[in-house]
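Researcher: We're teaching a course module on how sequence relates to structure. For the next exercise, students receive a sequence and then see the predicted structure as tokens, so they can try to spot secondary structure elements on their own. Here is the exercise chain.
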Amino acid sequence: MKVKSWMVTEVITASPEDTVEEAIQLMRRFSIRHIPVVENAKLVGLVTESNLRAYLSSEKLQFPLKEVMILNPITVDPETTIDEAARIIYKYKIGGLPVVRKGKLIGIITITDILEAFIELMGLLKSSSRLDVIPKKDNLNEVLEIIRKGGGKIISIGMDVNLNGEKVYFIRLEKIALDKIASDLEASGHKIVSLLE
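Model: And here is the predicted structure for the students to work with:
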């Protein structure tokens, strides 16, 4: 999944000459927390709700954004993957990333957009079933084959390591009765941790 599929393309922007007060009003009007600052369609900076807090006194509200904006903000390309954008946001503890192609602002992607993409990817809002299993000899392929033969349609797979050092796979499926699939897995030596229908 690429950023270009999840970014907001109708971006609310400001110019370097706009004031702090005008930026705050835009944020309130559109319920946003990030405003790219552009000049001739090129990204020149970024203001955020948090970096404008320092300028909320009456004499500072008229400062132009060029004096208070974040210069050289961290950006991504539209071809960047969603997981890479999520890593960048996590690493730098920021709430959003302007999306730039050849210096021109073409979108913005925020934590909310990335969360929506992961929810879609994981199928969390779809009616689904979940099977948590520890594969025999870490043979996930055999587990997946048994699930498919049992009529299971896989939406997503997650993995964690338990306290014994075993890999536990969380397999989300389109809604299905899991009893037969679970008994087939156990008959093949795989350990069922839990079933959620």
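Model: If you want an answer key for the exercise: The chain has a mean pLDDT of 93. The domain at 3-119 is CATH 3.10.580.10 (CBS-domain).
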